[in-house]
Amino acid sequence: AQRVTQPEKLLSVFKGAPVELKCNYSYSGSPELFWYVQYSRQRLQLLLRHISRESIKGFTADLNKGETSFHLKKPFAQEEDSAMYYCALSLRDGQNFVFGPGTRLSVLP
Amino acid sequence: GAVVSQHPSWVICKSGTSVKIECRSLDFQATTMFWYRQFPKQSLMLMATSNEGSKATYEQGVEKDKFLINHASLTLSTLTVTSAHPEDSSFYICSARTSPTYEQYFGPGTRLTVT
Asked: For residue A31, what is the nearest residue in chain B, using CA coordinates?
């Protein structure tokens, strides 16, 4: 079965510091990987998907099939980045969406 | 674009009654809608996947007779919690997906409290 792990429940960094939110997955095939973000009192929204290979709000994520990882990175964290971040996996057919447990990022002033 | 709404946003009901939650895609046609459940400070757990015009596919451990899902049109899916009990109290979130992309657009969620 597919599984997504995010080892850190809470990650605190200072403003301007680099940040990396870890995500590992287990799936034998070729999944699609996503990062979703949920700001306080807002709905979940898509941040990144690996197939688009783009940078959103300064965040990037690279799929490492060898390490089965999809870590989210940003070189200089901003206070407005404070939110809950979920890594998610989907099979190629778009079904079977699995979310990781989430990491709460807190960017301190 | 790509807005998903849910109604109601918050509902309180008595134990034993049924509650219907609506999920609508406002500006696009959703061939697939997903229903999730989220307990406090926990991640989203997929409950079921529904494709327009066909029966929903439930995840293991989700009682299909208790959580009735109907996806009658390309813009509306409903989740009915039948004979609700206090343990059904949770945050229910729907999402909708257009074809051929895999991106899901999420609704704001519905908080159900069963007393």
From this structure: B102
Instruction: Please give the span between the terminal C-alpha atoms of chain A, in angstroms, as a whole number.
Output: 41
- pLDDT tens by residue, A52-95: 777 789 999 988 988 999 999 999 999 999 999 999 998 766 66
Question: For testing the chain B interface, which of A36, A43, A51 should be mutated: the one with the most B CBs within 10 Å?
Answer: A43
d(CA B66, CA B82): 5
Instruction: Measure the CA–CA gap between A49 and A62, rounded to whole angstroms.
Output: 10
Q: Which residues of A touch B106 (CB under 8 A)?
A: 36, 43-45
Q: Which of B104, B105, B110 to mutate to test the interface with A (most CBs of A within 10 A)?
A: B104
Question: Are B2 and B73 within 8 A, CB to CB?
Answer: no
Helix (H, G, I), strand (E, B) or coil at A69: strand
Alpha carbon distance B21, B25 (integer Å): 14
Q: Please give the DSSP secondary-structure letter assigned to residue B49.
A: E
CA A90 to chain CA centroid, Å, is: 14
Strands (E), chain B: 4-7, 10-13, 19-25, 32-38, 44-51, 57-58, 67-73, 76-81, 90-97, 104-106, 110-114
Percent of chain B having pLDDT more than 90? Answer: 63
Place of tokens 């989430």: A102
Chain A: residue whose CA lies nearest to B106 = A44
